[in-house]
Amino acid sequence: MRVVLEFAPKGALRLPMHYNAALHGVLYRHLSDNRMRDQLHDHGLHRVGSKPVKLFTFSRLMGEYEIDSKEKTITFQGPVRWVVSSAVDQVIYDLSMTLLKAGRISLHGTEVQVRTASLERYSGTVTQGQIRLMSPITVYRTLNLPNGRKYTQYYSPGTPEFTELMRKNLLLKASALGLEVTEADAAFDLIPVDQAHMKERIVLFRDTPVHAWDGNFRVQGTPKMLALAWNAGLCMKNSDGFGLFDFFARGR
Fold first, then answer.
1. Digit-coded pLDDT (tens) for 21-67
2. By the 8 A CB rule, do 20 and 136 touch?
3. Domain with 75 in it
4. Domain at 110, CATH number
5. 252: in domain
6. pTM summary value
7. Does the keyword field hold Hydrolase (predicted)?
């Protein structure tokens, strides 16, 4: 399930160019269930072995904006939309009700009015389709260097490593939810429509650079796994604001 929120800022909404952490903070501050919030923040909603699985993601802000490259800021004029999605419905219910009851919240020091909160459920039956990314996708592996230090190796869409790690991540989410998966479920694919026009994005999350990708893609998989990816997010670092997508045309 996901919620589409509309915020109306009091004046211009000026944010740092890399504002994922600010949205991340809004989400955690406005979960009223303290136990669920602490579990989500500290350990993930579910665990598979030692791996915490958080099962939520969120979009970029959508609205009219101007970028100041010198100041490294982005300024939104007028209403903005923000989408939060989770494979655990209670997260979305709680967040939606808390924000609506609050009426006004602070986003990076600017007061914004919470105008609307619209819930959406995935009811598609398609096995493939073209998607639009509402936040970029990232896939990586942490490697141990000979000197004992760790190195994060990122992979671009269309490479075998990207596909392997993306599939493993989706199966991890399925396992966390107790879903039974078949061989067909495991054969999930994300295919660049135009590899020449893929864009690498380096997003700072609390000063840590994350290499992510935007572009036009097609997804192919079973309805069960497409629904899981739609709800919980594609690829990795979903809870930091990566991997939210929607279909250009979704079967219902």
1. 999 999 999 998 877 777 776 656 666 666 778 899 999 999 999 99
2. no
3. 2-120
4. 3.30.70.1890
5. no
6. 0.93
7. yes
